[in-house]
Design a protein that fits this description.
With 172 residues, this protein is of the alpha+beta class. It has a single domain (34-167), classed as Chitinase A, domain 3 (Roll), CATH 3.10.50. Helices cover 28% and strands 28% of the residues. It has helices spanning 2-22, 34-50, 98-101, 118-124, and strands at 56-57, 63-68, 71-74, 80-89, 94-97, 107-110, 128-129, 132-137, 157-167. Strands 1, 2, 4, 5, 6, 8 and 9 form a seven-stranded antiparallel beta sheet that branches. The chain is globular, with a radius of gyration of 22 Å.
């Protein structure tokens, strides 16, 4: 009985190996993991610092670089914001931009109503009118281990955002 079991196990293992060796995985296909994301994000942040960029972090953990200072009050939950944005992966591949969706390139929305990805909502709070900021959003503050649509799992997202206007909510 043990001999037959061992023989079947060996045959099954050989068949599994044969099938696996025939799989054709493109070099472009990438296996994503939290560890790989952390390494890539660390290297990206190191490269930004090496170029002289001052990187700050929000309380939630979004990294950001102020490209252009704005003026006035910072955005708060409930405010109506008008922004232009471009979203990239760390390898600089564009995955979304306001120019794609809006004829004037400007998106208007109420901050946190409804909530967007946590990193986006958190990042908006460090912006004021006419500010231009680059956000580096870890996947746990974006689409996490599941990904969404064209965004694979464990992707740090980069957003470059220009704040055109902030209309305070009545409650602020």
């Amino acid at each position: 009985m043990k001999k037959k079991y061992l023989k079947n196990l060996i045959i099954a293992s050989m068949m599994a190996f044969a099938v696996a060796s025939c799989l054709n995985i493109d070099d472009d296909e990438k296996v994503y993991s939290a560890a790989q994301e952390k390494l890539e994000r660390g290297a990206y942040l190191d490269s930004l610092q090496a170029k002289g960029h001052d990187i700050d972090t929000t309380e939630l953990g979004v990294y950001y670089i102020v490209i252009e200072e704005g003026e006035g009050d910072f955005a708060r939950a409930g405010d109506t914001l008008t922004v232009g944005y471009a979203g990239y992966f760390i390898d600089e591949t564009l995955f979304d931009a306001s120019d794609i969706h809006y004829p004037d390139g400007k998106m208007e929305f109420v901050l946190e109503n409804p909530p967007m990805i946590p990193g986006w909502d958190d990042g908006m709070k460090v912006m004021n009118k006419n500010a231009r900021v680059q956000f580096i959003v870890p996947s746990e503050l974006a689409y996490g281990s599941e990904g969404r649509g064209a965004i694979p799992p464990y992707q740090t997202l980069i957003f470059v955002v220009k704040m055109f206007d902030i209309k305070p909510s009545d409650s602020n």
